[in-house]
Amino acid sequence: MCGITGFINLNQSAASPVTLKKMTDAIAHRGPDGEGQWIEGNVALGHRRLAIIDLSPAGHQPMISEDHRYILTYNGEVYNFRELRTELEAKGYWFRSQSDSEVVLNAFACWGYEALGKFNGMFSFAVWDRKEQKLTLARDRYGIKPLYYSSQGNIFSFGSEQKAIFAHTAFKKDINKQALLEYFTFQNIFTDQTLLNDVSLLPAGSYLTLDLHESEPKAKVVKYWDYNFTQPREKADRQEYIEELDRLFNQAVNRQLVSDVELGAYLSGGMDSGSITAIAAQSVPNLKSFTCGFDLSSASGIELTFDERTKAEAMSALFKTEHYEIVLKAGDMERCLSDLAWHLEEPRVGQSYPNYYAAKLAGRFVKVVLSGGGGDELFGGYPWRYYRAVSNQDFEHYVDQYYVFWQRLMSNTHQKKVFKPIWGDVKHVWTRDIFRDVFASHENELKTPEDYINHSLYFEAKTFLHGLFVVEDKLSMAHSLENRVPFMDNDLVDFAMKCPIDLKLNNLADVIRLNENESGRKANRYFQKTNDGKQILRDMMAKYIPESVTGAQKQGFSSPDASWFKGESINFVKKVLLNKGANIYTYLDYDAVTELVDQHLQGIENRRLLIWSLLNFEQWMKTTL
Hints:
This protein has 625 residues and is an alpha+beta fold. Helix content is 40%, strand content 15%. The strands form 3 sheets. The chain has a 6-stranded antiparallel sheet. Strands 4-5-6-7-11-12 form a 6-stranded antiparallel sheet, covered by helices on one side. A 5-stranded parallel sheet has the order 15-14-13-16-17, sandwiched between helices. β4 and β5 form a beta hairpin. α6 (238-255) crosses α21 (535-541), α9 crosses α26 (608-624) and α10 (353-363) crosses α17. The longest helix is centred in the last third of the chain and has 29 residues, at 449-477. It is globular, with a radius of gyration of 24 Å. 52% of the residues are buried.
């Protein structure tokens, strides 16, 4: 795990080593174990190293191929690198190191872009082809590792984080108002835009090329992989599926234990992280495990269930891990907000400061940590979401229903009022169209409720899960910590995408029979958090973790901010958001925003996600602009 950056002067002027050093220094937290720069003419590549596999100088980057044609700067882990190395050695390729970086370099030299489909892991990298004068940027299938790029004036630049691009002396910052509207609709950015103009996020499962032989070089993005959730037409044998899932899950966890440094695991109290820890602990004696809990003394309602330390401690005792905990209190958010906003770089999905503290805890003891990301999105962990659009007249009706649910921060009715200061610049943006465009590459036939649920799983993997990966990368690397996600093993993902819906969801038939507008307890039960989802995972994991965990209702990793924002943190919220001089009111309308905030403070409506996003946006403006 590392940090990469670089730039090309498209006007052919010589690349400045001083500028490249500034760009690599900007992401020094991603790689405290070493740095490297490579410059030739107008091309510059930089690297910061977090040494995980082959700690020797032989793993130094940027790395040059044996024939001196290709230069690589690489971030990530390819877990099947040893198998690929054997295949490449049989083809005559020679290796100087034991690193996966050199395997990626030789694989690209051997197979070109087809190598991307062979990699099982998480990565982002840049390769400069000296012969063809072509730059390639690439990102892993699922978008676990981010990679940003910018074309501004005569400069093309890129980096693992935006701050590397900002460090280039020629870059000019200008807020992207359309992306701002997108974010404050979905609490996420579904497109490849960022909150700054001229900075894009390379889409997951894609590569970019920039050919300097062209008279006017332009970046071209090509998709090499995408999710494809489908419903098998033949009847499933439940036991066979469970046994195959067990085999693939064990294989995935064990693949990701490869490391030359100490490795640990998050242990939240839920079944995903619990099962990963159970498997890892069989191979790693005295495995270190980490839990982030919450002081619930001032919490109320459903938030009283948000602290899972008791379950985590019980599983730690069962698996004999060396367990560490941190307990967050009201006020911890405001104490870390400045650092968090700098590392996060722009607001993204979720309330991410608990992740920041969890990574800070783990980073004190290990350099690699396993987490349960992806289990919910692949195996149907959010049934109350999918059920809202399970019965549809056609695709457009499906989009209408699901779009309304995914307006996490504000509905269309609020947009014009909230964005009044810049409405003239964004009124042409239809966020429903942005939502609909997510499905452009998933044109599967939609005939049955199962087909629509697979459409929802596709959407959430492409947007919600991807947003979580971007957040987790930034906040783990803030503490020089590599975060691995065994659920995103290629073989396991392939299995999950073709797993029948009736093995994932328990009560689909009942939901189909219900009219979604029916009032009363019977209908509402399916549109609240339940234990209906991930049925095949629950069955498979029963051999590893207690029934009290596998049978429990889904509990996300969330702090009790709904209570804290109108309780112990209310003065902080008011100080920031009820201040007419706040930076955010350059773009947002003060009266419209404070009306929504007051609804939460007075207990009328839960708007904790909006309040967090506003606080984060304000701090981002102070930190970035």
